[in-house]
Protein: ABC-type quaternary amine transporter
Amino acid sequence: MIRFDSVTKGYPDGTLAVDNLSLDAPSGQISVLVGPSGCGKTTSLRMVNRMIEPTSGRVLLDGRDTASIEPAELRRGIGYVIQQAGLFPHKTVLDNIATVPLLLGRSKREARNRAAELLELVGLPQTLAGRYPVQLSGGQQQRVGVARALAADPPVMLMDEPFSAVDPVVREQLQNEFLRIQAELSKTIIFVTHDIDEAIKLGDKIAVMRVGGTLAQFSPPAELLSRPRDEFVAGFVGRDRGYRALSFASTGPLPLAEEPTVRLGDPLSAAREREKDGWILVVGQDDAPLGWLAAGGLTDEQAKGSAGTDLLNLGGTLATKAGTLREALDAALSSPSGRGVIVHEDGRFAGTVTASQVLARIETRATRLREGAIRSATGVCS
Ligand SMILES: Nc1ncnc2c1ncn2[C@@H]1O[C@H](COP(=O)(O)OP(=O)(O)OP(=O)(O)O)[C@@H](O)[C@H]1O
Structure:
């Protein structure tokens, strides 16, 4: 665990970058520091590895005061990833990643083997190993930055806006990869961002800071969205927080409707016979949904052929049975047939659900939450 214990950082010009910060970032989890520009996020992060020394207060790492640990020794156990990766431009990708293992006394061969493993872990092909950073895309450079920080297998990682210099699509890929890697490695991570959506997606706990370096709220994302502590936090997490909170609410057992399907390649005449309201779902050999077919609108000529991918409407998103209310609602709202497609964990088609059915479930949940809030406000036990 990383503990900030009444940590303050002031500068000689009178700026209070961080003001009496106390919080515990739990081991094996991602704690996100989020807040407007200049609220002290980077300063807080850098006080963990002693790149910045606190004016007062202590930062404890698993109970040890970091002030009592030599900075070089401290940093060996702490990976550090920054915006735009900060790679050594004159070293190849492989040598960039191998730098820390070499410094730690591993042989060149061991260090390079480790670097090759890490390249794979962060989803980069080995063919990039010999390139220089300038020959990589921004997203690839960030992946190398993450691989380099992981090279010494540090228990702690500090990440300062690591994904903010890439476009939104690459950014989402990097975030997903990062969550996959964290599920495998369970590092203790402090992650800085100014983007509340990124914080909500990645954080196990989120610290919202305000300008002046004070902590406004430190809570799991669902709680931050449902119970912002004050006006500042409520404004910062955004107007659509009620909708976004659905990302943390599991659907529970949905009333799934059966749906006639045709397999890709089946005769379209069958689709015409089975369709309910003009739309029919096309599945692959493995029963995974591929898209909707407007069977009601087929010409007689088309109906003589078979169900091919060229006729499919791919607009609808899929939701999993064990997924969230937000996924289920999105599947229903985005489906051309108006029926949201729900799949099993292995991707097989499970059934469909309408938006009004998902909304009924949302309404039940909201009523339960309201009743719970009234009970806790009035002290009545259930
Ligand atoms: N060396 C310094 N001297 C004086 N003030 C400083 C110094 N370094 C940082 N500050 C101030 O401390 C405050 C916090 O800075 P910090 O970089 O931690 O903010 P941040 O939340 O990470 O901001 P951003 O999101 O813009 O990166 C800012 O007001 C900044 O101007």
About this structure: The chain has two domains: 2-248, 261-360. The radius of gyration is 26 Å.
